[in-house]
Amino acid sequence: MSTADIVVTINPNSIDTRNSQRDEHLRSADFFKVNEYPEIVFRAHNLQHKGGEKHELQGEITIVGVTKPLTLDVEISGPAKNPWGNEVIGVVGSGSLNRSDFGLTYNAALETGGVLIGDTIKLNIEVEFVKKSE
Question: Which residue, among 132, 123, 129, 128, has the nearest Cα to 42 in the 3D structure?
């Protein structure tokens, strides 16, 4: 296991579901309370190699002031040269969390039974790092 010093900050105002009315609702007190909690923060502290390009990234995520552990399965590829001659590393990550663990419990009943919003949030992340030229 190795240490990882990674901090990712997300502005919940940047959420774009391609539906402005839904986006505004997500920013409201029913969900992300952006006026009170202007950031979602993931802090990673351990990166464990699982073989080949596969790794496990362990850390904590804070949403609406609640911090919970989060583990992501990641694949790290590279370094390699991109078509412009820059050295790059690609990282693809996935994981899931339960929104109710963060107090995000808003829901609406459906006429046909059940509820509108599931509890599990699936995370899929793709990042490319480019080495800075000296």
Answer: 123
Give the C-alpha separation, 42 to 62, whole Å.
6
> What gap in Å lies between CA 73 and CA 81, rounded to an integer?
24
What confidence tier does 1 reach under pLDDT thresholds 50, 70, 90? low
Of 95, 99, 101, 93, the residue nearest 120 (C-alpha) = 99
**Mean pLDDT, residues 11-26 taken together:** 92
The whole-model pTM stands at: 0.84
